[in-house]
Amino acid sequence: MTISVWRYSHFALAVSSFLFITLAAVTGIVLSFEPITGKVPSYKADHFNQLTLAETIPALKRSFSSVTSMRVDANQFVVVKGTDTSGKALEAYVDPSTGKVLGTPHKQHAFYQWVTALHRSLFLHEAGRFFVGLTSFLLLLIAISGTVLVIRRQRGWKRFFTRIVKDNFAQYYHVVLGRLSLIPIILIALTGTWLSMARFGLLTEKKVVHHIDENTIREEPVRQPAAFPVFKQVLLSQVQTVDYPFSEFPEDYYTLKLKDREIVVNQLTGEKLSEVIYPVTTTLSRLSLDWHTGRVSILWAIVLAIACLNILFFIYSGFAISLKRLAGRSRNKYKPEQCRFIILAGSENGSTMAFAKALQGQLIANGEMAYCTDLNNYQTFPQAEHIIILTSTYGLGDAPANANRFASLVKKYQQQPGVHFSVVGFGSHAYPDFCQFAFEVNNLLSLQPWALPLLEIHTINDKSPDQFNQWLVTWSQKVGLTGIALPETMKQKPAGLETMTVIEKTAITHADEPFIVRIKPSWRNKYTSGDLLAVYPADDYRERLYSIGKVGGHIQLSVKRHPDGLGSTYLYHLRPGDTIQARVVPNPHFLFPQQAPAVIMISNGTGIAPFLGMIEENNQLSECYLYCGFRYKLSFEPFAAALNEHMAANKLDGLQVAYSREEEKQYVKDLLANDADFVAQTLARGGVLMLCGSLSMQHDIIAWLETVCQERNGKSISHYQSHGQVLMDCY
Ligand SMILES: Cc1cc2nc3c(=O)[nH]c(=O)nc-3n(C[C@H](O)[C@H](O)[C@H](O)COP(=O)(O)O)c2cc1C
Questions:
Q1: ipTM over 0.95 threshold
Q2: Contacts for 135 with CB less than 8 Å, ≥ 6 apart
Q3: CB of 414 closer than 6 A to ligand 1?
């Protein structure tokens, strides 16, 4: 079964029952206080667990002139019904070892009675009981489908409790708390369902019947209750009730209702006249009541209250997750099989998708049927006349994440003959393989027998709206559409940026020396080392991302100045006290792995930035090593003092620096090659490698690691990558 079926079931069950579940959880929290308050004051005897009936029954006989029954309640308080020595009828808590009256049992408080009725039947009698029973069953199904989703998410039940990536608050805590409260919630749901089934007679609970031949009841030898063998064996902790004989005739006897059986005892001789073990269903019903109400233990009652609170949180977080997912889905007005225009987007960080959506919006506004989706959703489009592909390029000329299956899908799905295609590549001249993936897509489509190129491939540098508009004008003329243009909003920087204050910016004396910028965001901003800071140097759509190191409680960026670099020039001219408009982009895949036995950090150039923060925050002194590469000694100088301090404070266990244009002219890979055994052993014992810096360094190191891991550990590097032991943030 696919994950979406489970997710859909989990969602549908939750939506259909959330009102009843909310009511049951709120009333459940209130009722969980009842066992807690019910145990105060305590009437439980000191040695309750050691006392037997042979001690209690004679003690009661001495204190009461007659006893009709005795019961042990869920709090293990002993309650006696009878008449006292002055002939007054009473029901009282007693000390079972002395028979002394301790207090009077009270009826359930009116408030708890009201809440109990609401919890059990919603004040709707049998119909309400049915809905409550059904809700328990639905809760059970929600818990089961949730468990399956967690197992699938964690890729196997063995990894059920391993680390969860914190994408956002609702999603993270939905899973974390879900795993922790799974067992109590399943027990609440299971016992609630069981109790409802018992109530509606769906379980076969046989009535206990004793077959006693009255002619064989003996009157001798007469024994005192203290000497009855059965009474000597039965502990008070096993007793539910003891019904006393009505009269002194031998045909009247003691009836002991224990937790698992009923025993009838001759009142004169103490002989066991009959013993019936309860059917399993009866025992399970009693246990269900104990577990569902928490009446047997204060600790369990607290666990139940917490589980009910968690249920309320799951309702909130479940809806928050679903709303986010629905909002993130591309909202298509038309189905793919209806549309004349199909727009496919390859986008890693969403900006290319924004252009694709803008184009779709323009076409629909012009009365056309247009469908927009990820490149990985490529299929046969029966009505398509135009397929427009907008795609970015990532890594070293690779496909973005939502387009990595496109090449195989094109071979699998054919279109009607004569469908026109147009490709627009989004990339950056800062990378050597400018728009390479777009060129590959264009070539692939040219080879398809059904495909007719409408225009030559068009490339766009740095998300330029003007360059996109140029293409849009030509394309719409070719198609025969008028009035199509990119909305003005696409030319502006995003809304909702935060104002941050510059605290410090260091000066440089040489182009190869990196400079440091320290920025104070608002106190509300939650960020960590490894996240990215997006700045807008030209106050327009152009965005530049920098790795954050959280140093001294502030955002620290380490930047290399490029002569014509838009972002680095802007940052270099900032002065303390200046404010900037920026936003923090969470990067949850590049967090310091707190639980790892050892962490090896590898960087070149300004890729050292996030590590400076992670090492500073390594207060639990995790084993941590840094291998970093620079061109010149000068490039390392701004970071040297802080790293030496961290070494002295044991926050960093090893530091190695390579200079590619000075001294031994080494690269960071050469440093690692000297320690190949150590690197392989670190991975073998569950340690984590973190890489930050240039993509070419990443490329070289991954190729080298492949050989090292194969030779030394007999495993491919992909094994460690898939186990989250190789984290990368390269650009
Ligand atoms: C890590 C990284 C690698 C990139 N690699 C390339 C590349 O090889 N060729 C290229 O033209 N652009 C490259 N780019 C630039 C992106 O393709 C460009 O910024 C694009 O507009 C991003 O679109 P998106 O937000 O839809 O993913 C890279 C960007 C990043 C952050």
A1: yes
A2: 17, 20, 21, 24, 192
A3: no
